[in-house]
Design goal:
Elements lengths: L1 E4 L2 E7 L9 E6 L8 H10 L2 H9 L9 E5 L7 E6 L10 H18 L4 E4 L11 H19 L4 E6 L2 H14 L3
Parallel strand pairs: 2-7, 3-5, 3-6, 6-7
Antiparallel strand pairs: 1-2, 4-5
Helix pairs in contact: 3-4, 4-5
The structure holds ligand AR6.
């Protein structure tokens, strides 16, 4: 599924984020930048050890929740990996929506600074961190669509969803947020 946002593309695809050919791939990292399972495990496994070596060297203190940092992309078909740290879901009454929005927004800012035309993103926080997929889809898409509207960049944003159910949640949210 693809929609036009002020001349930019917003795409949804079902697949593995490590297989995307784009300028930047977003990782769903933890605040220690210590690696782990899910997207993080897949990215470090497919990208090779250079990514973790650079992460340790440049960001020994990790990365705050709601923020993101950049490394090169090792063996992946991308120039950059943007390591974003989403919130752990604790019922939604704390800062989770703001922190998730902030993580996506920081990804967009970094992609713009790096002059990325295309960025692939996962559904941050919806795996190990337990954020409900429908709510996460609304935050993810609204944040990135707003960014594209205001900045006319990145030219192509691709959300890579890992299951039919996750894809459906993003597709429903996208239909509601833009006129198709
Ligand atoms: N491609 C695209 N999406 C994927 C892939 C993949 N290869 N693998 C999983 N997903 P998660 P989080 C989906 O757990 O919730 C790690 O241990 C998955 O189905 O990767 O932000 C980190 O080190 C889910 O919908 O990230 C952190 O400690 C979504 O990606 C912690 O998990 C996010 O799931 C971060 O948890």
């Amino acid at each position: 599924m693809q929609v036009n946002v002020c001349g930019c593309e917003m795409q949804l695809v079902l697949g593995d984020i490590t297989q995307q050919t784009v300028d930047a791939i977003v990782n769903a990292a933890n605040s220690d930048l210590a690696g782990g399972g899910g997207v993080d495990g897949a990215i470090h496994s497919a990208g090779g050890p250079a990514i973790m070596e650079e992460t340790r060297e440049k960001f020994p203190d990790g990365c705050a929740t709601g923020s993101a940092v950049v490394t090169q992309a090792g063996l992946l078909s991308a120039k950059w990996v943007i390591h974003a740290v989403g919130p752990v879901w604790k019922g939604g009454q704390l800062e989770e929506p703001l922190q998730l929005m902030s993580a996506y927004r920081r990804c967009m800012q970094l992609a713009t600074e790096l002059e990325c035309e295309s960025v692939a993103l996962p559904a941050i926080s919806t795996g190990a961190y337990g954020y409900p997929i429908d709510l996460a889809a609304n935050v993810a898409l609204k944040t990135c669509i707003d960014y594209q509207k205001w900045h006319k960049a990145p030219q192509q944003i691709r959300f890579v969803l890992f299951s039919e159910g996750d894809y459906g949640a993003f597709a429903r949210s996208l239909e509601q947020q833009v006129e198709i």
